[in-house]
Amino acid sequence: MRLSRYFLPTLKETPAEAQIVSHRLMLRAAMVRQHAAGIYTWLPLGFAVLKRIEQIVREEQNRAGAQEMLMPTIQSAELWRESGRYDDYGKEMLRVTDRHARDMLYGPTAEEVITDVFRTSIRSYKDLPKVLYHIQWKFRDEVRPRFGVMRGREFLMKDAYSFDLDTATARHSYNQMFVAYLRTFARMGLKAIPLRAETGPIGGDLSHEFIVLADTGESEVHCHRALLEKAIPEGVDYDGDLQPLVDEWTGLYAAADEMHDVTKAATLGDDLVTARGIEVGHIFHFGTKYSAPMGATVTGPDGEPVTVAMGSYGVGVSRLVGAIIEASHDDHGIIWPESVAPFHVGLINLKVGDAATEAACAALYESLGPDRVLYDDRDERAGAKFADMDLIGLPWQVIVGPKGLGKGVVELKNRATGAREEISAESALARLA
Ligand code: ATP
Ligand code: MG
Ligand code: MG
Ligand code: MG
Question: Which residue ranges does the record assign to the Aminoacyl-transfer RNA synthetases class-II family profile domain (predicted)?
Answer without folding.
Answer: 38-337
